[in-house]
């Protein structure tokens, strides 16, 4: 849900270059700290998690104009380090297919990578006191709220905040506004027009945006929780912490 879809040429070079630099720094420290034995064991699951993320982020949901990221699930299954690397690969592949610009890969990796890390650590903390499915739901909701806030902040600072609004056309969703001057969308007037044009079934404006976001968060949290519940039945070792496996 927190994937930025701004095309190339919109965000100033200083910002997207900084995104790549930040991503490369994180990857460097991850590579330096990875345990080779752990990597060997989790490489197959890393590929699977990346493939699931790629599918989820490529296919818009039917009932809300958003798509899943399954980043928290990735963090829970393979940890925040390998999860961050998987996020980078997935974002690069999506950019090559035109799902967002090449220049935005760095920023996208930082945003969704934060979702992986927050989801993982919050899940581990909560699962000490609550059921793992409940912990998954809470961790997913919190991670999504944080990553979406980062996404909107990045886009608002660097380009056009309207790019962060729900954009896929889905049943019940229409956007009917046109602009004589595209530059107006960079400011408050353009944002107000964009939001006012949003239609989601019988709702419009901010209510439509809020319902779309809440619906997306609910679907992502529910889907992640159901998958974790399934793994707890068939492969609990993928979910349990090292201390719980002893």
Automatic annotation (TrEMBL):
Keyword field: Cell membrane, Membrane, Transmembrane, Transmembrane helix, Transport
Membrane topology: Multi-pass membrane protein
Protein's UniProt keywords contain Membrane: yes
Transmembrane region(s): 13-31, 43-64, 70-97, 104-123, 135-157, 206-232
Record localization: Cell membrane
Annotated InterPro entries: CbiM/NikMN
Record GO biological process: transition metal ion transport
GO cellular component, one term: plasma membrane
Entry keyword Nucleotidyltransferase: no
UniProt xrefs under Gene3D superfamilies: 1.10.1760.20
Record-linked PANTHER family: METAL TRANSPORT PROTEIN HI_1621-RELATED
Protein name: ABC-type Co2+ transport system permease component-like protein
